Amino acid sequence: MSDINGERLLADLRALATIGGQADGGVDRLAWSEADLAARRWFADRIREAGLEPRVDAVLNVFGHVPGSAAPRLLTGSHLDSVPNGGRLDGAYGAVASLEVLRSMVESGDPLAARVEVVGFADEEGVRFAIGLIGSLALTGALDLEQLREGRDWQGIPIQQVIASAGREVDRMLDAQQHLSSIAAFLELHIEQGPRMEADGVDLAVVTGIVGVYRAQVRVIGRQNHAGTTPFRLRHDAGRAAARAAAGLRELVESIDAEAVANIGSMRFDPGGVNVIPGRAAFTLEIRHLEEAVVRRIAASFKMNLDTICAEEGCRAETEQLSWVPPARMDREQMELLEAACRELDRQPARLSSGAGHDAAILAPHVPTGMLFVPSIGGVSHSPQEATSDEHLVLGARALLRGVRASAARIK
Ligand code: GLV
Ligand code: MN
Ligand code: MN
Description:
It is built from 13 helices and 16 strands. By secondary structure, it is α+β, with helices and mostly antiparallel strands.
């Protein structure tokens, strides 16, 4: 069996990193931005250049397959968008590696190439519209169009307008699901984005499951007043109430489950004057765990604690769920095929759960799904410092090739 071309893989990763590339080495390819659209054109061009047929669907997912080949096929890939000021590998690595895998199979005349399709998913990160995984949700028919029709992006621009400027229509987005029945299985290669593999000295890991992700917008309403003339005891300080609840989040989560994590990633006080007691505060809340019941328990406990604090501070709180992505278990057979693929390369892979969200979590309830990780240097991700050694990047793609071949060979 021939192998992937490691130099070409690394060159393509460097080329893609220049699209939305920043001086600090990171990338800014926020979904639906000019840079994101340029990356999708770049990916489609590479697909065409490899003699494959590109196809861009109703949500801007970019696919590639051998011309004239018939479904069902094994789908492999990841997402092309990034978080703001993100790294060059999150998503991009799995998309480019999948192309390198299929391209190598075609070059070596591998008949299994006809059973493989690659994908660069759209808007996985979900920073812009507060809901993410849009490409895979549309592909599986699970995208909530109502939320998109009415919503605004993070800068207040109507989502319908953002999507129209990218050449797509919200009302047509679910056309993407027509392709679901063509997919026999899904494999995603990704960087770990955490410190565990490096700490344990393992080169490859097979993912067992992906955490459920709950996101909410919390608003605290108090009473705006003069910060010089109002004694503490007479204040209804929405900022203080929000800050108290936020400060207790970690202890609250730890008291419920040692494996759970939560984050308050942004907080705003209104009107935001140095001499004005905040009348309103708003913050985002995210909770993650492999079991839905644990996530729900933490969300309920946080709400109870916030209500108690608000009562003490003379405020009230409202919590609005923004999104819920259920936890996903990876398919046992795909995991075993990926493990065998790693062993072919003389590596014993670790088994790891993923604390990051992935398109694989959305595909998993619909088709047998597997994921493979390579280590992240220093465990850093969602940052310009995100990095993986060239050796691990090439090794991961070699393992993916073997996993893809084994999985494609099983398609009936
Ligand atoms: C995506 O990277 C996420 O886990 O938020
Ligand atoms: Mn990712
Ligand atoms: Mn990410």
